[in-house]
Amino acid sequence: MFRLPDLPNVGYATTREKTGSDMIMCFMREVERDRLRLLTIVIEGRENLPLRESFVMVCNHSSHLDAVCLLASLPLRQVHHAFPVAAADYFFSTPLRAVMSTVAVNGLPLDRDHGAGSLDGFRTLLAAPHSVLIFFPEGTRSRTGELGRFRSGVARLVAGTNSQRPADTIELSNFAKGLGYEALMLAAPFYSLPGTAELAAHFRGIAKATGMPIILYNFPARTGVDMNREFLAAIADVEQICAIKESSGSFARMLEHIVHFDRRFQRVCGADDQAVDCFLWGSRSWIAGASNFLPAEHVALYRTCVLAKDFVKGQKLMHAMLPMFYLLEQGGKYIQYVKYGCELAGIPVGHPREPLQPLSDAEKADFRRLYDDLKAAGIASLAA
Three-class SS of residue 375? Predict the structure, then answer.
């Protein structure tokens, strides 16, 4: 969090014989040492930054100084590798603006309407060690400091708004829609155990009330309800229901989807230890809890299998990742392991909510060994 004190009108700081990131380095050094009297930046929570990994900052946008403030939160050695992402149609619309955006803050251009090609460059940057991308998803500056609606662009935000009460799910979904979320991922209501016809009516009602695309999340071990073939057939005419994340653990279920619903529902990988199998059979997306602490490794496997379609290399990568995935999927403490993984990655997210309890020292040691082995394998570099 950054707090800027009230200041009188200020002039401009200039640096001669400095260009590019050298200019940033010089400017940030002055800020860090509090020698620049024009502006004082107070940084709170710097210890929460995952500096041992490449990562993405997603930020509110209130001023053109936002990028400078965020750069100030990083160690000086990392400023060279930090890149605020800026709208190409504004900050790079003229040669002068492009030069200023690049030289002043290491800005990277993004075509907000047709920017899929830019994502490949961003992925490459994040695959390198200690890179930082800075995004402002509102797409414009807030005049009040309040969070604004996220602008639609090259990525999509999906909200998980599950609740036991349909009315709560609808309320949360519409709230997320107001923030700029563009799709929902929903499981069956837990505990009440609706039948096939009741479950189909439930999702029809949510689709009608929200008007948002829906990714089904089938996890019968957690909900007690299976989104089986009969259910999918019953809601196949609801166009908003566009995909299913299959987390039953049954590979036969994925094959069933291919046979009966291949052209109807997108298949999302929902079992980490089956990722390569899912990609081989046509899945083009993966929603994975472990990506919170192993982002580069997940991207490497995805790029190898889905984009390059190199399943020989993909199998080698998966072989290195499988011990970790097997523990996550079969160890009975998925949430605890993911939270501890985030801690090891430099992202402290706290203990799991009760009644779940933290891992024991022995469980942490076993997990840490697998984590260290996986990082030592250099998955991201193997996929290059």
Answer: helix
Q: Of residues 217, 302, 337, 340, which has the active-site annotation?
A: 217
Question: Whose CA is closest to 165, among 191, 184, 183?
Answer: 191
The reply to whether 316 belongs to the active site is no
What is the Cα–Cα distance from 81 to 128, expressed in whole angstroms?
Answer: 9
The pLDDT value given to residue 257: 95
Instruction: Give the CA radius of gyration of the chain.
Output: 23
pLDDT in the model for residue 38: 54
Question: How far apart are the C-alpha atoms of 87 and 77, rounded to whole Å?
Answer: 26
**Phi, psi (deg, nearest 5) at residue 240:** -65, -25
Largest CA-CA distance found in the chain, in angstroms, rounded: 72
112 φ, ψ (degrees, to nearest 5) = -70, -15
Between strands 132-135 and 55-58, the pairing is parallel
Alpha carbon distance 358, 352 (integer Å):
7
Selection from 211, 120, 219, 200 nearest residue 162 by Cα = 219
Of the candidates 177, 181, 208, 245, the residue annotated as catalytic is 245
Distance CA 356, CA 155 (A): 33
Superfamily of domain 156-270: Aldolase class I (3.20.20.70)
- Distance between CA atoms of residues 43 and 72, nearest Å: 8
DSSP 138-170: TSS--SSS---PPPP-SS--EE----SSHHHHH
The one-letter code for the residue type at 313 is K
Active site residue 245: yes
227-267 pLDDT per residue, tens: 999 999 999 999 999 999 999 989 899 999 999 999 899 99
Residues in contact with 97: Cβ distance below 8 Å, sequence separation at least 6, in sequence order: 90, 91
Mean pLDDT, residues 357-374 taken together: 96
Amino acid 364 reads: K
Q: What is the C-alpha end-to-end distance of the chain, expressed in Å?
A: 35
Domain spans of the chain, in order of start: 2-135, 156-270, 289-384
Give dist(CA 370, CA 363) in Å, integer: 11
Q: How many whole angstroms separate alpha carbon 60 and alpha carbon 76?
A: 23
Helix (H/G/I), strand (E/B), else coil: 371: helix
